Protein backbone atom coordinates (compact mmCIF):
# COMPACT_ATOMS: atom_id res chain seq x y z
CA UNK A 1 0.00 0.00 0.00
CA UNK A 2 1.58 3.33 -1.00
CA UNK A 3 1.85 6.10 1.57
CA UNK A 4 -0.38 9.13 1.05
CA UNK A 5 1.52 12.09 -0.41
CA UNK A 6 2.38 15.09 1.72
CA UNK A 7 1.91 18.71 0.64
CA UNK A 8 5.43 19.07 -0.76
CA UNK A 9 5.16 15.87 -2.81
CA UNK A 10 1.91 17.15 -4.35
CA UNK A 11 3.60 20.47 -5.13
CA UNK A 12 6.64 18.75 -6.67
CA UNK A 13 4.42 16.49 -8.77
CA UNK A 14 2.47 19.53 -9.99
CA UNK A 15 5.71 21.28 -10.97
CA UNK A 16 6.77 18.28 -13.06
CA UNK A 17 3.36 17.81 -14.69
CA UNK A 18 3.08 21.47 -15.67
CA UNK A 19 6.69 21.49 -16.87
CA UNK A 20 7.61 24.36 -14.56
CA UNK A 21 11.08 22.83 -14.78
CA UNK A 22 11.73 22.07 -18.46
CA UNK A 23 12.85 18.47 -19.11
CA UNK A 24 15.70 19.83 -21.21
CA UNK A 25 17.05 21.71 -18.18
CA UNK A 26 17.28 18.78 -15.79
CA UNK A 27 16.43 15.09 -15.71
CA UNK A 28 17.92 13.85 -12.46
CA UNK A 29 15.25 13.36 -9.80
CA UNK A 30 17.57 14.53 -7.03
CA UNK A 31 18.15 17.87 -8.74
CA UNK A 32 14.45 18.26 -9.60
CA UNK A 33 13.58 17.77 -5.94
CA UNK A 34 16.19 20.33 -4.94
CA UNK A 35 14.74 22.96 -7.30
CA UNK A 36 11.19 22.16 -6.19
CA UNK A 37 12.30 22.47 -2.56
CA UNK A 38 13.80 25.89 -3.19
CA UNK A 39 10.55 27.00 -4.84
CA UNK A 40 8.53 25.53 -1.95
CA UNK A 41 10.59 27.49 0.57
CA UNK A 42 9.84 30.73 -1.32
CA UNK A 43 6.07 30.22 -0.99
CA UNK A 44 4.15 31.98 1.75
CA UNK A 45 1.98 30.02 4.19
CA UNK A 46 -1.07 31.22 2.27
CA UNK A 47 0.35 29.92 -1.03
CA UNK A 48 1.14 26.56 0.61
CA UNK A 49 -2.36 26.21 2.10
CA UNK A 50 -4.01 24.61 -0.98
CA UNK A 51 -1.29 21.94 -1.03
CA UNK A 52 -1.74 21.22 2.68
CA UNK A 53 -5.52 21.08 2.23
CA UNK A 54 -5.21 18.61 -0.65
CA UNK A 55 -2.73 16.48 1.32
CA UNK A 56 -5.16 16.40 4.27
CA UNK A 57 -8.00 15.37 1.94
CA UNK A 58 -5.91 12.58 0.43
CA UNK A 59 -4.83 11.42 3.90
CA UNK A 60 -8.47 11.14 5.01
CA UNK A 61 -9.31 9.23 1.85
CA UNK A 62 -6.32 6.92 2.42
CA UNK A 63 -7.39 6.31 6.03
CA UNK A 64 -10.91 5.48 4.85
CA UNK A 65 -9.62 3.01 2.22
CA UNK A 66 -7.00 1.43 4.47
CA UNK A 67 -8.18 1.82 8.09
CA UNK A 68 -5.59 -0.60 9.50
CA UNK A 69 -2.63 0.85 7.57
CA UNK A 70 0.52 1.50 9.59
CA UNK A 71 3.68 2.81 7.94
CA UNK A 72 6.58 0.46 8.54
CA UNK A 73 9.84 1.28 6.76
Automatic annotation (TrEMBL):
The keyword Nucleus applies. Signal peptide: none annotated. Pfam families: HMG_box. Residues 1-70 form the HMG box domain. It comes from the Eukaryota. Keywords: DNA-binding, Nucleus. Residues 1-70 bind DNA. InterPro entries: HMG_box_dom, HMG_box_dom_sf, SOX/SOX-like_TF. GO terms for molecular function: DNA-binding transcription factor activity, RNA polymerase II-specific; RNA polymerase II cis-regulatory region sequence-specific DNA binding. GO terms for cellular component: nucleus. This is High mobility group box domain-containing protein. It comes from Rhodocollybia butyracea.
